[in-house]
Specification:
Helices cover about 70% and strands about 0% of the residues. It has about 350 residues and is mostly helical. It is globular, with a radius of gyration of 19 Å. Keywords: Membrane, Transmembrane, Transmembrane helix.
């Protein structure tokens, strides 16, 4: 595609994704959470029994669909390629702390946009922190930050993660406990659209994100580095479409207090997404982009997704995740430790690159 066609495709895809996200809420997903990569990975690891927070335990078909949608379209477009080996353990640690930051804010960058489209002004603090974290990351990029090259791997390596998603789908369909596990106690895990509605939406969004390379981290990074707005326009389109559907459906409730699955502590909303923004720019993509690249055969992104999953389990097993009541003391410590660790990773991999 030429530049104009590419930009048009990104805007159209963004409008479609934003509409689907808002419609998923009408179909049963939690308010302002048609899609949330961080929240849905957390729910999935809870559904598998890897954390003990009963309110957020459900294998989310949207995650399965996102990865399989990317996998299928990348095969059709001959873009599926098994590769990896670029500092995998470092990527795992970065993914772990990105999740800690997201669960302090209570959402990933995708949900941040959807929260704004629902009128949740607390997400403005998250957006400011996210952009600031990316800005710090860009400083390291300009100085030569690198996690080194990837290497070609066997086709089997690239097929493992999609195969795992099929296993999870079978578990979800064959074991109703994964569907109704949290119904009695309520909570976000008990709120979901029908399985095949969620799966279909995930497949479509996964394909659209694979086709357009949508990534909010990449959008802000490219704007800072090159004044390029192409990717940002995709997320602006997501916001506009979700906003219009929310207004039409009566789901637009502007304000700070009483927002669904959110808290009003501006400082920790800012710092949580500052950590997520910095970690994501060092990884080369937001949680959505990592899932899409995992579907394309990138095992470095698979390792990152596993880091996100481990971070979600750790956060809920050790009370690091925030809640509607606000951040916990453990969560505040976790975010500050994460900021220090991620800055060390950035510095080490920048100065090492300068010496190489």
């Amino acid at each position: 595609m030429n530049f104009a066609s590419e930009k048009r495709a990104i805007i159209i895809a963004g409008l479609g994704i934003g509409m689907l996200a808002a419609l998923l809420v009408l179909a049963g997903n939690p308010a302002n959470m048609g899609f949330c990569i961080a929240c849905f990975i957390r729910d999935t690891v809870g559904g598998l029994g890897l954390h003990r927070a009963g309110a957020v335990q459900y294998i989310r078909p949207e995650i399965i669909g996102l990865l399989l949608g990317s996998f299928i379209l990348s095969l059709i477009r001959h873009e599926h390629a098994a590769k990896g080996g670029s500092s995998p353990l470092t990527r795992f640690v970065l993914g772990f702390f990105v999740m800690i930051g997201c669960l302090m804010f209570l959402g990933c960058p995708f949900r941040m946009i959807l929260r704004l489209a629902g009128g949740d002004w607390n997400a403005l603090f998250g957006l400011a922190g996210f952009a600031a974290g990316i800005g710090i990351g860009v400083i390291f990029l300009r100085r030569g930050y690198s996690l080194k090259r990837t290497y070609a791997l066997t086709k089997l390596e690239g097929a493992v993660m999609p195969a795992i998603q099929i296993v999870l789908l079978v578990l979800l369909l064959a074991a109703p406990a994964f569907i109704f596990f949290t119904k009695a106690g309520g909570g976000p895990g008990a709120q979901h659209a029908a399985v095949f509605v969620s799966l279909g939406a995930g497949l479509l969004v996964g394909a659209l994100a694979q086709y357009t390379r949508l990534c909010m981290v990449g959008g802000i990074r490219d704007f800072i580095l090159f004044h390029e707005t192409k990717l940002l326009m995709g997320f602006a389109a997501i916001f506009v479409a979700a906003l219009l559907v929310n207004v039409a459906a009566g789901n637009f409730h502007p304000g700070f207090a009483g927002q669904p699955v959110a808290h009003t502590d501006g400082l920790w909303n800012f710092l949580g997404m500052w950590l997520a923004g910095l970690g994501c720019v060092l990884l080369g993509g937001c949680p959505l982009r990592q899932l899409i690249m995992a579907g394309e055969g990138n095992t470095d992104s698979v390792i990152t997704v596993l880091g996100l999953a481990c971070g979600a389990a750790f956060a809920h097993n050790f009370a690091l995740a925030a809640s509607g009541a606000g951040p916990s003391d453990n969560g505040k410590v976790g975010v500050m430790v994460g900021i220090i660790v991620v800055l060390i990773i950035a510095a080490v991999n920048t100065f090492r690159s300068q010496k190489a």
